[in-house]
Each structure stands twice: as C-alpha cells, then as structure tokens.
Amino acid sequence: MPDNTKAIDLDQTIDAIAQHGVAKGLGKFLNDAEFQAILVRQICEEFDELNPRLVRFVLKRAAPLVAKASGKSMAWLGKVSQQRLTKILKLTPGYANVMSALEQVLATADLAQRAEQELAAIRKGTLRRNEAEHLDFLSSDLKRHAEILHDLDDIKVGIEKLLNPQPPLRLDIITQKRKQRRFVYGTRYVEFQGRRDEIAQLDAFINAAPMVSWHLITGSGGQGKSRLALEFCLQVGGAWRAGFLSANTTYDHWEDWRPDQPTLIVVDYVARRGEAVGQAIRHAAANAQNYEFPVRFLLLERDMQSDDEWAKQFWGPGRTDQISLEDTCHRQKPIELADPGPDELWTIMQGMNATLDETRREECLEKLSTIDKESRALYAAFLGEALTANDNVLEWSTTDLAREILQRDQENFWPKDVTEQDENLLALATMTAGTPIEALGVLKDTNLFPALNKNTTFDRQGTITGHIDGKIFFPLEPDILGELFVLEVLYYNTNLAIKHPSRERHNLIRGIAWHSAPTGMNEFLVRCARDFPNHKTMKTLSMPLDSPGDTPEVIAASLFTIGQMSDHLSYAGEGGLLHEHTLALCNAFQNDGHMVIQLNAAFAAPREFGALHDTSQPDLAQTLFDELSILADKHPDIEGFQAPKAAVTLLMISDIAINGRHTEAQLLLYEAVNIARRFPAHFYSQIVLTAAPKAQELLARDYQARNEDSSDS
Known about the structure:
Elements: H1 10-18, H2 26-30, H3 33-46, H4 52-69, H5 79-91, H6 95-124, H7 142-163, E1 169-170, H8 196-206, E2 212-218, H9 225-236, E3 241-245, E4 263-267, H10 274-287, E5 295-301, H11 309-315, H12 319-328, E6 335-336, H13 342-352, H14 361-371, H15 377-386, H16 398-412, H17 420-431, E7 435-436, H18 437-440, H19 455-465, E8 472-473, H20 479-489, H21 501-516, H22 518-531, H23 538-541, H24 552-571, H25 575-589, H26 595-614, H27 618-634, H28 639-658, H29 662-678, H30 683-712
Parallel strand pairs: 2-5, 2-6, 3-4, 4-5
Antiparallel strand pairs: 1-3, 7-8
Helix pairs in contact: 3-4, 4-5, 4-7, 6-7, 10-11, 10-12, 13-15, 15-16, 16-20, 17-20, 17-21, 20-22, 21-22, 22-24, 24-25, 24-26, 25-26, 25-27, 26-27, 26-28, 27-28, 28-29, 28-30, 29-30
C-alpha cells in the first residue's frame, strides 16, 4: 500500500484486506507488512499510551507464532525458535498493554456484530430504533468487518495458546487388542462397579473450596487405583478437563501456566517423578490467586512412607516447600482402597468367565480369599479366567495364578518367533518402566538384545505389550504380570558357575537396568518385594551391585533400595534374604573410599534393623547396630551417619528395657535424643524427637511396674 495510507481508517483497511481473501485468516495478513503497519497505526490512534515501536515489535514477534498456530507452513519455525519468540514476548515490557488493546479491538468486533443484529431487527420491525444500543458501531461494510474481527479473535486465542500451553492430559482407553490387554485398566474389560465411598470422596475433593489442591489414592498393585481414577475422569469430564499426565511428558510450563477451564490432573506412578510433581503443585499453589478455574492433582501410588525417597523429593528440601504442599493437601490421610466388596469381585469373575453361575459364587469368593488374602480386583480377574480351564486352583498361590495367566498370554498372543534376546529387551523395559532406544544404542554387548534398528523388533515388542512407538520399548503390563515375567526370565541356579550364560545374562541385564534407570529399578524391586517376596529370583536380583564397573552412585542406590524392601520381606517372613541384605549393608559401611555408598547404607539401616527384629534375628540386629556405630563414631559431625544411629538406638530401647536393663535403656534414650537435637533437620532425627517422650513414658511405666512387683514379692 502507498505511504498515504495513514489517513485510511479501519473500515477502508478491512475492505482492502477483503480483496485479498480475508477468509484465509488473519495469520496471513498479520505477516503482511502493509497490513501490519495499518494495524499498528489503528491501535496507536485509539490508545495514545501505546508506543508504535512497541506495538510493531510485538506484532512482528507474534506474527510467525500466529501463522504456526493456525497451521500455516512456516517450516523454519522449529521448537527452539518458537520457545525463543515466546520468551521474547513474555519479557517485552508493555506486552500486556498491547494484548489489552487487541482485546478492546475484539470488543469493538462484538459491538459491531450486535449492531448488525440490531439493524436487521429494525428492518424486520422487531426492534425500535430508539431501543438499539450499538448502531454507532456500524461499519461501512458490516459483513467484512465482522469477518476480519472474527479472524482477529481466532488469532488472539492462538497467541494465548502459544503463550499459555495446557498440560497434556490423556485418557488411554484401549479399543484395540482388548482381549490381549484385558487386564489393563484402560480396556475397561469388565463393568466398573462399587467404589461408591471412594467416588464420594473424590467428588468432595474436586468440589472443595480451594482453587488448588491435591489428594492421594493408595492401594496395593491390582487393587484398582488406575481404573477408579479413569472412571472418575470420565464421570466429571463434561465439566472438567480431566486426564492422566503422561509419564514421559516434556511439559515444563507449570511456573506460568494458567488453566483455561477446571482441570483435574491424574498422576499415576507418582513415585517415578515425585520431585517434578511436587514442584508442579507448588507452582500452581503460588499462582492460585490469579486462576479463574480450579485445579486438582490426583496422585496414585501404592503407598507413601515418609522415608521413601520419592516422598522426600515430593515434599521438597525446605520447610517453605513442605508448608506449601501441606496447605494444598485436601486431606492428610489418603484415600486407601479397601478390598472390593463381594458383589464387585463376583462381577469381575463373571466378566472374565461367562460360564460361572450363581451356584458357584461363595465357592469362588472363598477360593479367592485363600489365594490372595487381600482379595484384589486383579486377582479376581485372574481367577475368573483361570477357572475356564482349570478348576483345581484352591491350593494355588498368587504366584501360581499369575504364572497361569502369563503362560496363557504367551501361548495365545505373543509372536511365535520371540527369541531370548526379545525376552531380554522386554525384561529390561519392564524393570526400568520403559526403555528409550537411545539408552540401548551405547551398549557394547550387541548379542544381549535384538537388532534395535529393525522394524521387526518394534513389531514383536509391540505385539507383546500392545504399544508400538518407534522410540521407546514399553514394559509388560499389568505390573504384576510384568514383575513375574522378569523374575521368571532372569532366574538362574545359584550353583551354576560364574561364567554360565544364565548367570551372566542375569547380572548383565540387572546392571544395565540399574545404570540406565536407578529410580525405575528401585520402584520395580520394591514392587517385587511386595508382590513376590518368596520368588527364588529375589535372592539374586534384590542384592546390591558389587561389580568393578558399577559406579558408586548406582551402588548407593541399590543399597538404599534394601531399606525400601525390608518391610515387605519381613511381612513375608523372608528372614534369609534379610540376613543377606544386612551383611551387604555392613560390608558397605566399611567402604571408606566412597562416602555416598556409606551414607545410603546408613539410611537403609533403621528399616533393616526393624525387619530383623520382626523376624527374630536379634544377634544380626546387634551386629548391624555395632557396625553402624563404628561408622558413626568415625564421623561425629556427619548427620547422615549420626541420625540413623540415633534411630536404631531408639529401636533397641524396648528390648533392653524388657530384659530389666533400665539404666542402660535410659542412657541409650538420652544418647539418641542428644544426637537428634544436634541434627534436627534430618528425617530420622525428627522421628526420634517425636517418639522420645513416648519412649520415656513407657520406660517410666515399666520401671514402676517392676518395682511394684518387687515390693509385693
């Protein structure tokens, strides 16, 4: 356009643009220098406080983003370029004012459209002229005016989306290979029933007053946490943007995110990303006063122990971080999934086996309670299907039942040409919660896994797991079947020679899993200790790393996991495995070359000590305490040694008092409290300081009772 266009008003501008095809969208015209100049002048004429250079700067930076958002080519605008332009816009002083001016232009569009409607109504005789409120906003070409300003509105939305991307939420409802993946919650293979109390608690959670809050659902594997969350998302999805936050999402806009509608974010396997989830909630809490819509974070995990590594990362290192999460927690007590009721369990069994009639209801429910003391929903499904072929399952264990289902899947759904290398790859992906292909590209042992550059490898793995991505190998689901598969595949007889292929295979895959994904391996082993503590492979797979090529940090992580497994092994009565783990911890205490190894072994010691006590191994417990004390005495100023010693000392007091050694018990309590007071910020110190008054009360009561008994005698 010529230079004298300064006198052209907005109506003439619209007419000119319309000649070039306004229907194609404003993205094209915002990238047109002539139109952009007219738009700059128009905005500045209506808003005196805006500097033309600022308006021009903002529009020029926004133009390519708009075009990209509206599906135009703009092939040069890659992810890095978009991020850079977005950052420039965010940091531009006065950007908000320009956006405000654009909003007022849109308001003018709205008024013009109302004026057009009023004019039409006047012509029809349904509206009196003196009743019209917007006729002053009529343009010279009403239709074109409405079109172009409608495009402006679309572009504004596009810009806002680029500057305020929403977190990617998914509802992974499985519609293909449903028979193969019938035990995965997303197939919804059997009708969802029951859980009325839990649904009511979730309703109260999302309808509560706070703008931002979070809640936790806990329950053992196979109890139905993910299915409950999925059904609730579907139930509220009409009013809420609800879904699961992808495990491998790269979304990183939490700090400046603004929800554009009520949002329910479900985080499954929160232990895998505790720190990131805690930080996301803290960012949302900090910005809540600027939100127009409520945000809810629903976290799913088997348990949340205060000394779990993921829990510590979730809560954050500082007291301010922790207070933020405490203030936004819906309720301090999580929703703990109880055993499903008999009606729900029976419905699940019949859903998996149509031949079961009501005459067998009590018999089947009794069998389930015998096999699985928790009567979990997943094992009800396993049992229902197993009864289609084998009616003699009363004496089976949970391992036997899961093994039956795994073998059925292998026979009916797995490719016939699966090799040992394919199994190795599937085992690794299951241990690490998914293995990216680039993590395997650096491996020197090319014979351990199948050729990674062949589509057939992805096809076979995808056929087994139901996932084909091309970038990542997925774990075998559900978790319980995946865990059992790994334990079965990696088993070897401990009497075999060190260089035997089965033994080498086990050690290689275990080492790769630990080094490539220590957090995933920690989670996997803790689950195995919970679900299959007596499996023979646990005697080797659960031991800490000890090879010369293992890094100190990964060895430390494997030692830390010993403490995480101890409660489950104690509950299962696995005293022998606890014995081996304890010896490994004591050996690690003596590794003076790497303090990170010693620190992680020390942190595991209190939980290990408690497990030894519960499995009646007092001599070994005393050995653990003695070795930890030696290490702590060498480093009197390191809280990572002192605080665990204080915790173990406190645990010893009751046994000593029971034997009548009250003076010794009192001295130990005094020592534990003094250590905790020196290092009050440590996790174990807080436990000691909280429990010490109760311990003192019990000692005094026991001492008094003994003296009274002595006097009576």
